[in-house]
Amino acid sequence: MEQSEVSITRIPADFDRWGEVLALILQAFAFMDGIIDPPSSAQLLTVDALRAKALRETGLTRRRQDRRLPFCSRKG
Amino acid sequence: MTAAALTADEIERYARHIVLPEVGGAGQQKLKQARVLVIGAGGLGAPVLEYLAAAGVGTLGVIDDDTVSLSNLQRQVIHGTDTIGMLKTQSAKAAIARINPNISVETHTSRLTAENAPALVAKYDIVVDGSDNFETRYVVADACATQGKPLVHAAVGRFDGSVTVLKPFENGGDGKPNPSYRDLFPEAPPPGLVPSCAEAGVLGALTGVVGTLQAMEAIKLITGIGEPLVGRLLLYDALAARFETIRYKRR
Questions:
Q1: Of A56-70, B22-36, B108-122, which range is least confident?
Q2: How many domains does chain A have?
Q3: Taking CA atoms, what residue in A is nearest to B187?
Q4: Domains of chain B (ranges plus CATH)?
């Protein structure tokens, strides 16, 4: 992936695709399912928890071409 | 006197070990006879080499192809301002000689590759990985697995670290094969995804904590005491001052 194809911006206040974010996170950690004990803390995440986390912390969106791939980063 | 027998000087040097019933004279002799290969003389390798040298591990192999630079010194405490520009293998060898002249140091000033790793690993009893990149971690883990050598693995970044012990060539207490590094991390992340210490930063004392945990695991493996971190990943969150352990198993 070339750097020029990616732009990073703050998650807008009206962002409403938290279900897709949760699915992305669960998919990313799926390879650990059944292998580690206790299970990944990703299993405890919910759409509401993600939304609240984005309010508490600084949420960033990485946009590649016409796709939008969100992720969160710690505040401070 | 056999090669493993301790001299009067060694008995005095290691008196605080020998007085421990779990170690004793027999454990100290095992340390003296042991051959440990340390991958990298950097942030993790520094405390590993220092503590294993002080503990009396008879032969320490150290592989590193880098030279000491000023920005290494906030964490790589085996090196000093006076060794800037020197090969890390030579700087580490000189430091070990100051700590404990009884230790034989074998320097390997080269980069570990899939081609040279199996033969090098085969010459040692235990391997401690203090490398700073995924490519080397997989090379080390694969070589140790095929050569049947216990591997003490660790990784650090910013304020967090992890340690585990890999013995995938043996069965666990449940009769099932122990997990390998690839069971924990099936494949390396794409290049550039995980930032290096140079990019993300690392607190120097963190490498001291985690590297010292690695030295402790190596000493446990050599002397056969305690419960090594086989099938367990120890996580250290320095900011929260919290340790957590995650069990993992073969896929």
A1: A56-70
A2: 1
A3: A31
A4: 1-33 (no CATH), 34-247 (3.40.50.720)
Scanning the structure block, which residue is given the tokens 């009206």? A14
Encode pLDDT of B71-83 as tens digits.
999 999 999 999 9
The identity of residue B43, as a single letter, is: G
* Cross-chain residue pair B248–A38, CB shorter than 8 Å: no
- Chain B CB contacts of A38 under 8 Å are 246
Write down the ipTM of this complex: 0.76
Q: Is B192 left (phi over 0), alpha (psi -120 to 50) or beta?
A: left
By CA distance, what is B251's nearest residue in A? A35
Is pLDDT above 80 for B62?
yes
- Select from A37, A69, A73 the residue whose CB has the most chain B CBs within 10 Å, as the one to mutate to test that interface: A37
Coil, helix or strand at residue B16: helix
- Return the minimum-mean-pLDDT range out of A20-29, B125-134, B205-214: A20-29
Closest C-alpha to B121, from B157, B145, B89: B145
Q: Is A31's CB within 8 Å of B186's CB?
A: yes
B45 vs B190, which has greater pLDDT?
B45
Contacts of A37 in chain B (CB under 8 A): 246-249
Least confident of A9-23, B121-135, B163-177, B183-197: B183-197
Distance separating alpha carbons of residues B236 and B207, to the nearest angstrom = 11
Q: Which domain holds residue A43?
A: 3-73
B184/A31 touch (CB, cutoff 8 Å), yes or no: no
- Return the residue in B245, B246, B247, B250 with the most chain A beta carbons within 10 A, the one to mutate for interface testing: B246
